[in-house]
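REQUEST ID: PR-0412
SUBMITTED BY: lab tech R.K.
PRIORITY: routine
TASK: structure prediction, single protein chain
INPUT:
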Amino acid sequence: MLIFMGAIFLLSHQPGDSLHMPSFIPGFDKLVHMIVYGLLAATILYAFEPAINNGRTSVLFLVTVILCILYGIGDEFHQSFIPGRFASIADLAADTLGAVAACAVWFFWKRKKNSTSQVFFQ
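STATUS: complete
OUTPUT:
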């Protein structure tokens, strides 16, 4: 999780003119934000599941999404000091959406996995 956060920081520290995002795909940067923060959420879920989950999935989701939002706010603030970069509410919204989507996928995957194993072992 911390290594992934460090990678996000390093990528965010690149000057705007060094980024080569495809301009022919509208919203491509938002898609990248969603994917990256979805992966960040997955690493947080993996790291904190044993300590927090114990039947409290909503607490685990809340902690995960809040951590992703806080990191996204810090990331956007950090970018405001980088030449050619700026803070963006739209980027933060994409970060949040990616985190929530990852939590939803994780929840349904866990639910399906648990229901399959219960049926199999009964």
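NOTES: The CA atoms of residues 64 and 78 lie 21 Å apart.
REVIEWED BY: pending
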